[in-house]
Amino acid sequence: MNQVVAGALVDHAKAETLVTRKTLDGFSSISELRSMMEVMPWVLKGDLEDFRRGSASVKLGQLCALLAASELMEWSPDETALIGWNGSGCSENNTAYWEDYAINGRELGRSGLFVATLPTTPACEVAITLGIHGPVFYLQTPALTEALFEEVDSVFLRGNIRHVIVLEINSDSACALFLERGDFEIKTRIQTETLSQLFFLLKERGKP
Amino acid sequence: MTEKKVKIIASATVTPCGDDTDSALDNFFRGEQCLTIPKHFDSKGLQLGVCGELDEAPRSEVSRAEKLLMKLLPQMPYIGSLPSDTTLYLATTVGSIDLLEYARTGATLDCTKSLLETAANIFKLKNVRLVSAACASGQKAAVMAAEMLKKGKSKYALIIGCDISSEFVTSGFFSLGALSKGLTRPYDIARDGLSLGEAAGAMLLAAEDTPESPEGYLLGWGETCDATHITAPDNSGNELVNAIHHALKMSKLTANEICGVMGHGTGTIYNDQAEIIALNIIFNDKPCPLYSLKGNIGHTLGATGVLQNIFALKFVKRQMFPPQAGLIAPMAGAENMVSTASAELNGVNILSLNIGFGGLNSAVVLEGVS
Questions:
Q1: Cα A197 to the center of its chain, rounded Å
Q2: H, E, C per residue of chain A
Q3: Chain-wide mean pLDDT for chain B?
Q4: How many Cβ contacts (< 8 angstroms) between chains A and B?
């Protein structure tokens, strides 16, 4: 049985962690949150070199995953997988690229907007931020965490993966949970429609 | 305890080289580059792989992706009779993106979700999952399905890979400077980029204890992420090497027991270079025949991994790789791997590679039936 061992949730006004109960608020933009995180000694330092050029969903994902990773004392990026799950996908990025192309044409096409149209881009940018070398992919299933956790179990079965990060990104929020392979017994296998719901449920119950 | 194997018991393809697998194979062995100037949008002279009469139809509210899936159906007589717990894994990068093109501007459509719903209807399955790992999506879907079968959750899983040629994707790859000015030339010394293609492929996987006879087996797999750059592969090939090591270890095989490599081979400078570096590390003392489908049909994105797995088994059956389409002179390091002539395969185990944006590496080992 696998266990949630860390997590974070970021929205337009507040960022919070699951286990250590750290909170950052009072920011007016995601860039401001980044600045706040940079001066917090408890926040892990990740590779945010590409932060400026990332889409809004990439930025949310990067900061949320960094906060979640900051909760863990020990983890190896080489033995970690990352799954982007459901959320708002890349529809808005598709529209943004297509409208830009319709106006400006082929010769002035913006590659940065095109790269953002892949559903995997936020997960891959987060992998760069955290240096993750395990499997990385995006999965869309019916809105129930059961389907997601079935796939997480499969990833753990390989033996070379100790942690899986599951990441849900919406237009104005992101939630990242770290799962650890182990012999933990979860009293109730909680089913929710979104990771954010699961985050709040776990937080309500105390230590996950 | 003996490890359970995952069988591939049926397959179907629609590619620019043919509306079924046999006609595509004939074109591959003739070295045909099935690339042409598309009719459904102005490619500005670029040649793409387009699927037969699909190109005659103008854009409409019915996606080309849906039409491609419908063209698979006649090759899939088992649809409608699969057990209800069968899961469909759909591999795609942009799904029904032409619906966004058709709507022109101002629309926000979920083009991947739309194709997932379409696939669920066409293939009559309720358990559906969309798998996206950029251009490694096809093999990623196969791996996920195989893992589900190994766990004993169900007896069958259907994998569909599908991506279409579109103005959206063509203009996007153009903006990245990744497209060939002419016809793509994978592993060639003068390669200058990829040619895009469209295709769909279907593989029906089954647990080992099912009665159907296999076309082949999925033996092992490995997946890694470079975590270095969002579009370019890691030039060292290190993480691709690691993915191959994982796949070989899981397959309980050594590199010497691999008889051929279905490469990702897009024809871009960087992809092919990273791949050849990795393959030279893996096969340093015994070069292995290497072949990329993309010389024949272009880069079919989310479908490519599914097609590679299907055609790998067909090549094992013939004990032969086709000539590398588009090749004139092999790039440095590939001289003893790729060929303008057909290459003999002495064995049944094929290594298939996918590399995707975001530094995603996928290695799958297949066992064919010769």
A1: 15
A2: CCEEEEEEEEECCEEEECCCCCEEECCCCHHHHHHHHHCCCCCCCCCCCCHHHCCHHHHHHHHHHHHHHCCCCCCCHHHEEEEEECCCCCHHHHHHHHHHHHHHCCCCCCHHHHHCCCCCHHHHHHHHHHCCCCCEEEEECCCCHHHHHHHHHHHHHCCCCCEEEEEEECCCEEEEEEEECCCCCCCCCCCCCCHHHHHHHHHHCCCC
A3: 95
A4: 161
A-contacting residues in B 225-244 (Cβ below 8 Å): 225-231, 239, 242
C-beta separation of A56 from A170 below 8 A: no
Q: Are B274 and B231 in contact (CB under 8 A)?
A: no
Task: Give the containing element (helix H, strand E) for A17.
Answer: strand A14-17
Question: pLDDT (tens digit, 9 = 90+) per residue, B220-259?
Answer: 999 999 999 988 899 999 999 999 999 999 999 999 999 9
Q: What is the pTM of this model?
A: 0.96
B/e letters for A144-173, b = 16+ CB within 10 Å, e = fewer, are: ebebbbbbbbbbbebebbbbbbbbbbbeeb
Strands B6-14 and B290-291: unpaired
Q: Which tokens hold the place of B153?
A: 């959750």
Say which range, A54-63, B69-78, B99-108, has the weakest mean pLDDT.
B99-108
The structure tokens listed for A49 are 């070199």
Kind plus residue range of the DSSP H or E element containing A154? helix A145-157
Q: Angle at Cα B188 formed by Cα B170 and Cα B164, nearest 5°?
A: 25
Q: How far, in Å, CA of A152 to CA of A45, rounded?
A: 26
Going by DSSP bridges, is the β-strand pair A23-25/B216-225 parallel, antiparallel, or unpaired? unpaired
> Measured between CB atoms, does A58 come within 8 Å of chain B?
no
Burial (0-12, 13-18, 19+ Cβ within 10 Å), B120: middle
- As for the ipTM of the complex, it is 0.95
Q: Which of A137, A138, A149, A158 would you mutate first to test chain B, the one with the most B CBs within 10 A? A: A137
Q: Is A171 on the interface with B (CB under 8 A)?
A: no
Residue B226 is encoded by which pair of tokens?
A: 């470079």
Per-residue pLDDT of chain A in tens (208 residues, 90 and over written 9): 678 999 999 998 999 999 999 999 999 999 999 999 999 999 999 999 989 888 999 999 999 999 999 999 899 999 999 999 999 888 899 999 999 999 999 888 899 999 999 999 999 999 999 999 999 999 999 988 999 998 999 999 888 899 999 999 998 999 999 999 875 444 346 789 999 999 999 998 875 5
* C-alpha B19, offset from chain centre: 16
Q: A95 at the B interface (CB within 8 A)?
A: yes
| Structure-model confidence comparison of residues B106 and B99, the more confident one | B99
Q: What is the dihedral of CA B182, B186, B192, B197, to 10 degrees?
A: 50
Q: Residue B105's pLDDT is what?
A: 60
CB B24 within 8 A of CB B72: no
